[in-house]
Amino acid sequence: MPRRLLIAVSIAMLFGRSPGQNRTSLNPSTVIRSDVRLVLVPVTVTDRRGAVVNGLAREHFKLLEEKTPLPIVSFTEEDAPCSVGIVLDVSGSMKPTLPQAKSALRAFFETFNPEDEAFLMSVSSVPRELTKFTSQFTELLDSVRFTSAGGSTAFIDTAYLALSRMRDASHARRAAAATGQSQRDRRGDCRGIAQG
């Protein structure tokens, strides 16, 4: 009798009893063995710029073992956890738009999964680390609730600090993003978004 069938028969015998029968009375010398030939192969597909490619199907992949094609038994697309660093501009130029930036930040964190993590920094005259990496996104939002806009913009210093903090990320998928208006900081450098 093949091993797989033996397991199926044993499981059916175990769970096929009536409710009044004792389900734990297996013979202690009973040995159940299985031969599992299923291997998980996690894959992340990126384009030339490093952006994740979504929407791929089983037909888009080939699995080879020593140049011999193997069948893909199961195929699923999952949202892999990611680590995100956010730099929130709270300089004087953000006075008219800071409430909208905070709302956008809240909406952004609502899209996160429980396995994701993020940290938050603010940028004004000096960089300020509001939180370390955390999955407690309410903590992130609470850290900016009463923050007001003011000062100049030390963006380059804050971006450097944020990218350095990304070394502490737990997940392979990482991104750093900055909010703000497209003006120049005190050194004359333009702001932008960094991904890594």
Please explain how this structure is put together.
By secondary structure, the protein is an alpha/beta fold. It has four helices and six strands. The strands form two sheets. Strands 5-4-3-6 form a four-stranded mixed sheet. The chain has a two-stranded antiparallel sheet with strand order 1-2. Strand 4 (117-123) and strand 5 (127-134) form a beta hairpin. The longest helix has 13 residues, at 3-15. 17% of the residues are buried.
CATH topology of one domain: Rossmann fold
CATH architecture of one domain: 3-Layer(aba) Sandwich
Poorly predicted runs are 1-22, 183-196
Pairing-aware structural class of the strands and helices? alpha/beta
Q: What is the CATH homologous superfamily assignment of one domain?
A: von Willebrand factor, type A domain
Note the run of SSEs as H and E: HEEEHEEHHE
- Please provide the count of β strands: 6
Give the SSE layout.
Elements: H1 3-15, E1 63-65, E2 68-70, E3 82-89, H2 98-110, E4 117-123, E5 127-134, H3 137-142, H4 155-165, E6 173-178
Parallel strand pairs: 3-4, 3-6
Antiparallel strand pairs: 1-2, 4-5
